[in-house]
Every structure is written in structure tokens, then in C-alpha cells.
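A reminder from the course coordinator: this example appears on the midterm review sheet, so study it carefully.

Given structure:
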């Protein structure tokens, strides 16, 4: 029998024993991580869908299984889900409540693991269901884990390494002092950290419990008197943490209850904290749920961190120049498929100083596969690169001094006029947004349309956000800020020192895909006026990889846009060229010189 059928039958049997009409399986772990350890890929295990965003709903009566995901993954999910077992729902997970109330009978009970859903998501769904006389049930045990059984991978237990102040620019003591001052402003006596990147940042530690993310499983708490770190095993630390009280990982819930019982002070939780964690404090007036000071401090890079970003992007560009120079020659001489190409790129990065690992699985897509926004090539099942197809590669590295994320779209033959027009419209959006000047505090959603405007003029668009924050040797996707069509109530507004991506694109299913992505830092803009004594800001490129001129239709560009491209290419050549010469990488240097010649 099909293993997928066996899994669903076992889940439904468990639901009947719990008197549940359905089971909600969000994409997440106890820390609401975007990328997951193997043991936490519960939604992937039950559905077969490997994308990083999606929510599954398994119903008992009627027997059916459903998955919701966003526009980035619709095409991929359609290929990965078994249509005989699963129904794919386009659009947003916010439709789940409405779907449940229209599909099931009033009084039906829907179960969910409260530690794998954020408190805000839980409350929103609970209100939707309660209004129609349905019930959302927080489960004491995880149904998927029970069905998965002994074959479920164990919890990762990797070494935890300290990161020196030459990389972080700020000590644990100074960070804690800053956070305590922010706690006093909120009249809060305890700050609970559940986001793994926030914990790694605070303690100047890095791990490898989750692929591509240098984090480790933990919780943390900061009070006015003490600092606590909750670990699976304290022996994993490479150095002792002076002044830090180490407690067992699973003791966080009991700690919260004990603190509340002995103090009248409020406890501060992140807006992304799980329902299970926050439920330890049932009284609403005893807790604060909002963006915490760690998230905001982490988002604004200090001088040391920003210097690291600049330097690691030079080294990262060396790897990419080598890669494109190599690829141009190899596809003429022999067959190279998408997966093999991605492995070569990874190998070039590994040779760079302070390289630790990739920042996400490399997206290497040719022709129609380039239209799959988060396509992952597989060994033995990848398309061979040809001179007739467009090729999109989205990749990044984790370095001790920073994190990179860059997308380039290239063509090794003669691109069609249609592809050149679409590419140039994407490029125009990239240029327009990068050159935008805006006052401090502007929300990312207010800028999003600037990157889309050239596409909108001819009725085109793309189904993903325009930009995301990036951590400093931390997660490649970092909040709370971002650039997207969606309004984000937690967005604090853009300010100097933040690092974001700008990555417009265009995709035609089954045909081709285009994306151009640079990381940028926010810097002070040199403006003639200063209305309202506001600080005006703009973006400055960190990524230093040439944009392929072959794909550009020059007649569609203004003289200012041509000048921008030429200036950007001069910057790439001036910053990356010296290191290529120093390393004796002649072929890559020649490629860089050729690709940065003036467009005019």
C-alpha cells in the first residue's frame, strides 16, 4: 500500500481516539523557525510538500486532506502533492478558518500542537472558529510525532561555538544592559526569548542544529538580576558563559510559571512566540506580546557588523565570478546539469576565508525550472543547462562576518526579445527601488510598488515579496522589517543600518523565470532639504556581481538607468578585481572585466 495512504489512515485513527474532526499541521517548530531540523518537518512528512511555507489540514469526516501555501510555492506544491490524496488551496492560510466552518458541522473539534503555532495565529483561528460554534483544541501530545514513531529523526545536538567581538561588535554584557533599559520602559520584569536567531545574537553564540541557519535549540530569559539560557546539553558550549545560569531546555515553561508566581512584573514575549509558551501566563494583563528589543537591535547592524557585510560580499563575489566564468566554458564542452552546477558554486564559496556554510539551499533552475520560485535541483533528476535556455541561480553563504544572498539570471545563447523585455522591466524595478530616497521610519510596504511599477505598466507582476531583512552570520530571512505588498503591523519602519534584499522578478510557468537580487544597506541620503527635521535615507548596494548585459534591452532604459548600471559595474570591478588578482584567478578576472564594460 502507498505509504502516504498509510500515514493518513494512522493520523485519522488517532483523531478518532481524541474525538477530533481534524488536525492542523502548521509549518514550524517550537521556535516558529522558517527553516526546520529534519525531525520538525512534520507537514512535509505527512504531505510530501517540501516548500518552507504551508499549512496542512487533515479531516476525519469527510476524509480529506488539504494544504494551503502562498504564490511562491503553488507550482511546486502542485507537482509534489498527490492529487488523489491532497487538495491544494491557493492564497493565504487565513482562509483555513472559513474553510473549516463551511466544510464541517458546528461543534466540530480541530486539534493543533500549541507549541507549533504562534499565539497570534492561534488566537485568530480560535476566534474565527468560536464565532461559528467550532472549537480549536490545544493538544498535549503531537499526533504526527506519534504516527511517525521511531523513524522520526532525533533532536539535533550539535556543538555551540562562541563568536568573538571582532565579528559581533558588542558584548553579551552590553547587549543585556541595553535590553534591560528597554524592559524598564515597558515596566517588564522578564524578557523571554524563543526565537533561535535572537538567542544566538544575544549570547554571541552560533550553532548548526538547523541546516543553513547558524542557530541552536534553546530558550532564554533576561530579568533585572539574572540571565538564563535553556539548553539541551550544557556540554555543547565551547566556552563557559560567565554570569549566565544554564537550565534544561524543557524547563522553560516551569520557569515562566515560577517567575510569575514570585513577581508582579510583566513578562515580555515576542510576537512570534508559540501559543504553548504564552499559555503559561493565562492573564492578559500580566504579559506583553510585541516586537522585542532583541529583534530591533539585531536588525540594525553596528559598525563592526556592517564592515563585515561589506567584506564578506567581496569574497562572495569572487566565488560567483569564478562560477560564471567556469560555467560559460563548461556548458560548451560538456553536459552540466542544474544540480552539478550548484555543487560547483558551493565548492567555490567553501574556498573563501571565514566561510561556514550556505545560507539556504541553492536555487539552480534552467528554462521552465527557473519559473519555480524556490526550485531545488536533485541529483540525477536535474535539467541539463543549454545555450537555449535562461538560467536562474539564487544562492548565498554564511561567513563569520556576514550573510549573503544573491540572485542572477543569465543566458548563454541568444535570448528572445520577449525574455529581454521582461528582464529589463525587472531590472528597471530593481534600479528604481535601490535609488529611492525616503524618510526614516517608512514601512516596507510603502516602497514595494516602486519595484513592480515597470512590470505593472504592461500587466505583469510577481507572486513574492520584494525584500527581506538579512542577519549578520544569522538567518538569511530576518524581520521584523521587509518590503512586501502586505501590510505588516510589526514592521518598525526602515532605518539606517538595516540590511535587506531587493529582488523583483517575473515568472512564466513552464517557460522561464527571471529574478535580480542584491543585498543593500540603508544609509543616510544626501538631500538638499530636511523637511520636518527628518532623517532621509536610501539604499546602498552590498552585492557586487555584474548583471548580464546580454539580457538587457538598452532602448528601454533612460540615460540615468544606463549610468546607474555602468556605475554599479565599475563598483563591482573596483572592489572585486583586486582580490581576484591577489588570488591569481585570471579567468574569473577576465570575465569580470568583460562583464563590467560600459553598457553604452
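Designed residues:
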Amino acid at each position: 500500500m502507498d505509504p502516504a495512504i498509510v500515514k493518513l489512515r494512522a493520523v485519522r485513527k488517532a483523531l478518532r481516539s481524541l474525538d477530533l474532526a481534524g488536525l492542523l499541521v502548521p509549518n514550524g517548530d517550537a521556535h516558529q523557525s522558517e527553516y526546520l531540523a529534519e525531525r520538525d518537518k512534520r507537514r512535509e512528512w505527512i504531505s510530501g510538500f517540501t516548500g518552507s511555507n504551508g499549512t496542512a489540514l487533515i479531516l476525519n469526516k469527510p476524509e480529506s486532506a488539504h494544504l494551503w501555501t502562498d504564490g511562491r510555492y503553488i507550482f511546486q506544491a502542485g507537482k509534489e502533492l498527490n492529487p488523489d490524496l491532497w487538495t491544494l488551496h491557493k492564497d493565504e492560510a487565513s482562509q483555513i478558518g472559513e474553510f473549516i466552518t463551511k466544510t464541517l458541522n458546528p461543534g466540530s473539534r480541530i486539534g493543533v500542537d500549541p507549541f507549533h503555532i504562534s499565539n497570534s495565529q492561534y488566537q485568530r483561528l480560535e476566534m474565527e472558529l468560536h464565532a461559528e460554534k467550532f472549537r480549536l483544541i490545544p493538544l498535549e501530545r503531537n499526533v504526527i510525532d506519534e504516527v511517525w514513531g521511531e523513524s522520526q529523526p532525533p533532536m539535533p545536538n550539535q556543538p555551540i561555538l562562541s563568536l568573538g567581538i571582532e565579528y559581533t561588535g558588542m558584548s553579551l554584557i552590553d547587549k543585556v544592559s541595553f535590553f534591560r533599559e528597554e524592559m524598564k520602559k515597558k515596566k517588564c520584569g522578564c524578557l523571554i526569548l524563543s526565537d533561535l536567531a535572537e538567542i544566538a545574537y544575544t549570547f554571541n553564540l552560533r550553532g548548526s542544529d538547523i541546516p543553513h541557519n547558524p542557530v541552536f535549540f534553546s530558550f532564554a530569559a533576561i530579568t533585572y538580576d539574572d540571565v538564563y539560557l535553556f539548553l539541551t546539553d550544557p556540554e555543547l558550549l565551547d566556552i563557559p558563559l560567565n554570569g549566565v545560569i544554564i537550565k534544561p531546555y524543557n524547563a522553560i515553561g516551569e520557569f515562566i510559571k515560577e517567575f510569575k508566581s514570585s513577581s508582579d512584573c510583566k513578562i515580555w514575549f515576542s510576537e512570534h512566540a508559540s501559543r504553548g509558551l504564552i499559555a503559561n501566563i493565562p492573564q492578559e494583563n500580566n504579559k506583553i506580546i510585541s516586537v522585542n528589543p532583541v529583534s530591533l537591535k539585531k536588525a540594525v547592524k553596528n559598525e563592526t557588523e556592517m564592515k563585515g557585510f561589506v567584506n564578506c560580499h567581496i569574497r562572495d563575489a569572487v566565488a560567483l565570478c569564478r562560477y560564471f566564468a567556469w560555467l560559460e566554458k563548461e556548458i560548451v564542452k560538456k553536459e552540466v546539469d542544474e544540480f552539478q552546477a550548484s555543487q560547483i558554486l558551493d565548492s567555490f564559496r567553501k574556498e573563501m576565508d571565514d566561510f561556514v556554510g550556505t545560507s539556504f539551499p541553492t536555487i539552480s533552475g534552467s528554462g521552465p525550472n527557473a519559473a519555480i520560485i524556490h526550485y531545488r535541483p536533485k541529483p540525477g533528476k536535474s535539467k541539463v543547462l543549454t545555450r537555449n535556455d535562461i538560467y536562474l541561480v539564487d544562492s548565498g553563504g554564511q561567513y563569520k562576518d556576514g550573510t549573503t544572498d544573491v540572485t542572477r539570471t543569465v543566458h548563454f545563447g541568444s535570448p528572445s526579445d520577449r525574455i529581454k523585455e521582461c528582464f529589463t522591466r525587472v531590472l528597471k524595478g530593481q534600479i528604481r527601488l535601490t535609488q529611492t530616497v525616503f524618510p526614516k521610519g517608512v514601512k516596507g510596504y510603502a516602497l514595494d510598488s516602486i519595484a513592480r511599477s515597470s512590470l505593472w505598466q504592461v500587466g505583469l507582476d510577481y507572486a513574492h515579496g520584494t525584500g527581506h531583512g538579512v542577519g549578520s552570520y544569522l538567518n538569511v530571512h530576518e524581520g521584523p522589517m521587509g518590503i512586501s505588498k502586505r501590510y505588516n503591523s510589526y514592521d518598525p519602519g526602515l532605518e539606517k543600518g538595516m540590511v535587506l534584499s531587493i529582488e523583483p522578478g517575473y515568472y512564466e510557468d513552464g517557460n522561464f523565470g527571471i529574478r535580480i537580487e542584491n543585498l543593500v544597506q540603508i544609509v543616510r541620503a544626501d538631500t538638499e532639504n530636511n523637511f520636518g527635521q527628518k532623517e532621509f535615507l536610501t539604499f546602498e548596494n552590498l552585492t557586487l556581481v555584474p548583471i548580464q548585459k546580454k539580457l538587457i534591452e538598452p532602448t528601454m532604459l533612460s540615460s540615468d538607468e544606463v549610468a546607474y548600471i555602468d556605475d554599479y559595474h565599475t563598483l563591482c570591478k573596483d572592489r572585486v578585481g583586486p582580490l581576484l588578482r591577489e588570488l591569481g584567478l585570471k579567468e574569473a578576472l577576465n570575465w569580470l572585466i568583460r562583464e563590467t564594460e560600459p553598457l553604452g
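The chain has a mean pLDDT of 96. The CA atoms of residues 501 and 519 lie 4 Å apart.
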